[in-house]
Amino acid sequence: MNTSTLAIKVSGISKSYGSVKALDNISLDVRRGEIFGLIGPDGAGKTTLFKILVTLLNADSGLAQVDGLDVQKDYKKIRSRVGYMPGKFSLYPDLTIRENMEFFASLFGVTVEQNYDLVAPIYSQIEKFSNRRAGRLSGGMKQKLALSCALIHKPSVLFLDEPTTGVDAVSRSEFWDMLFNLKEQGLSILVSTPYMDEASRCDRIALINNGHVLDIDTPQNMVDNYDAPLYGVKCDNMYEMLKKLRKVESIANCYTTGEYHHIVASKEFDVERLIQDLTDNGLKNIELKAVIPDIEDVFIKLLSNEQQ
Amino acid sequence: MKNQFLQFVKKETLHILRDSRTMLIALLMPVAQILLFGFAVSTEINNINVAVVVPQWCEGVRQSVERLSANPYITYKGDIAPDEIDQNLRSGNVDAIVVFTHDFEKIMNEWRRNGVSKSAMQFIMDASNTNIAQAGTGYLTNILASDVMAASSMVETHMLFNPQLKSAFNFVPGIMGMIFILICALLTSVSIVREKETGTMDVLLVSPVRPLRIILAKMVPYFGLSCINLTTILLLARFVLGIPMGSNLWIVILVSLVYLALALSLGLLVSTIAKKQVVALLISAAVMLLPIVMLSGMLFPIENMPSVLQPLSAIVPARWYIDAMRKLLIQGASFPLILKDFLILIIMTILLLAVALKKFNDKLE
To answer: Is A158 a residue whose pLDDT tops 80?
Structure first.
């Protein structure tokens, strides 16, 4: 494949910290103009992969390219082309919004005015507080400021490491709208998140766990390819029920998720018998229904397939 | 690009200005230390408690005792019995006791007539505080013995440069050596490491800016702060403590600027080693401050150190700076006399800067 059609190309990247393998032979491609999500729990290796791609860390082995440039050989060139927003709030809390913006613009030799159009949809929301110090902003405002700072030099590839962690639900949803707008303007975006529900906002996602990729596809395909019957069940004593469910042989897997416990059924699973069983065990108000799987169900299934 | 550098300096300056507590400490510390060491902390000994033991009073003894009690450096505590000597010294009641012989008059007469000298008195000192014991012996010898042995005294002593042995004169160069390390090395290293700790360094590194530029821009405001301190210290030293300073102020400033550069390099080196602000602080305090106080000659003369420590003190930069400042400020020495100190400081600066820049990494590990 011609590398120029790819914003990011990762092939066989491994990285260890001492005896801990953070990344184990990771490969993935991010196409130009797409939002690519890295979905995985804390400690999956998302941040390490980000640091390798933005040239802050060297991989132990494997190759990676950003914007067609090698992350080891051409790291200086890459550094001026990408926008990076680390997982931790990394602006200066003692500088005001305006001062932070001006500083990060000058870092790349541009002015805020030059690229105002690109950041305007985001920056205009916090501009009226431009004399407030960054340390005194709310989580959502900090996030908008950090994104504005990462965008001010018109990067071709945007790296957002867990941008929505610690941000309220409304701001999170707004944030994804903003990313969609940026994508429309031609930016390629690699974004990581531990929230499975955000996966559907990405064009394609990679599910990663323990340093390796479980699957790469569009969120829709992943859900469509889910091949086992999935049920949700709830009653008056959820904990007791979970213990009971785990002993039932026709249930391949069951786990807590929000209001319902999810049950991955195997072939000889019988709904009526299960309800009867649970009622006999003294559980009341049992409610059981078939559910449509989401990314979290996919993730858990891939994980349990792997463990077998 | 020039504008970029200025923006960096502006940002660093804002960091310092907005951290008003640190800035206040940085600006007031030199003033407080100069005043403290100049007035409150004093190594001059001027209050020695002395008692006498007189087996037999006579005219000569009476004159000696009168001279003792009239001397401003001595507090006369009266005469005591011979068997009270031990108890008085142990209780800390007196620091020194002068014991006259019972035939004081006779010995003096014999010496005046025939030049035959015999012991006429004895000093018993409490040497648990060696400074007081030494100074006291000196005072007592001057007051009593020199008078008694007036004719035989052939040695005349002149204290040059600091005739009153004012301790402030001695401390000012030491304080300068310490303050600049504190401001330049400690504050710079902490401020660089802070960027690593909070993660802003990651963002700075993922940009076209050369890391060296980031570091240089960081040093500028701290260099400025130190120049303000240098001015304050020199003004206080001249007009409050009355230190002569000679006529070579420009050389003082030149040597100080080299020392500032050295301290900044040291701070940079620390920042390449430390990953946390606390670590940077500890390294600065333990590895830099302690040797400066103990080994630079600021408090303890290098000549008095155990021979193992003397070469060690040679690698403490402050030693050479303090030495040069003493010569310049107090003796009014000319440039050739401090050339050795100056060259050593320059070589140290170049070495430190080279090591620090070599160790400085534009990746995270």
So the answer is: yes
Q: Is A107–B11 a contact, with Cβ atoms under 8 angstroms apart? A: no
For the sheet with A204-209, list strands across it.
Answer: A82-85, A157-160, A188-193, A35-39, A204-209, A212-217
In CATH, B48-152 is 3.40.1710.10: yes
Predicted TM-score (pTM) of this structure = 0.78
> Could you report the predicted ipTM of this complex, rounded to two decimals?
0.86
What sections of chain A are H helices per DSSP?
46-53, 75-81, 97-107, 116-123, 139-151, 169-184, 219-224, 238-245, 271-280, 295-307
Please indicate whether, in this complex, the C-beta atoms of A109 and B1 are within 8 angstroms of each other: yes
Q: Which residue of B has its CA nearest to A155?
A: B207
Q: A57 contacts in B (CB within 8 Å)?
A: 363-365
Residues above pLDDT 70, as percent of chain A: 99
Return d(Cα B333, Cα A298) in angstroms, integer.
82
What residue spans in chain B does CATH classification 3.40.1710.10 cover?
A: 48-152
Residue with the larger pLDDT of the pair A267 and B125: B125
pLDDT per residue as tens digits for the range A89-99: 889 999 999 99
Inter-residue contact B179 to B233 (CB < 8 Å): yes
Residue A112 burial by CB count (10 A; 0-12/13-18/19+): exposed, middle or buried? middle
Q: How far is B202 from chain A (nearest CA, A)?
A: 7
CA–CA dist A234, A212 (Å, integer) = 34
Ordered domains of chain A (ranges, CATH)? 3-223 (3.40.50.300), 228-292 (3.30.70.2070)
| pLDDT tops 60 at residue B153 | no
Which residues in chain A are contacts of B365 at CB distance < 8 A? Answer: 57-58
* Distance, CA of B161 to CA of A209 (rounded, Å): 75
pLDDT for res A2: 44
Q: Which amino acid belongs to residue A71?
A: V
Q: Which amino acid is at A177?
A: D
**Which pLDDT tens digit goes with each residue over B220-275?**
998 998 899 999 988 988 888 888 776 788 899 999 999 999 999 999 889 888 88
Spell out the SS3 assignment of B318-350: HHHHHHHHHHHHHHCCCHHHHHHHHHHHHHHHH
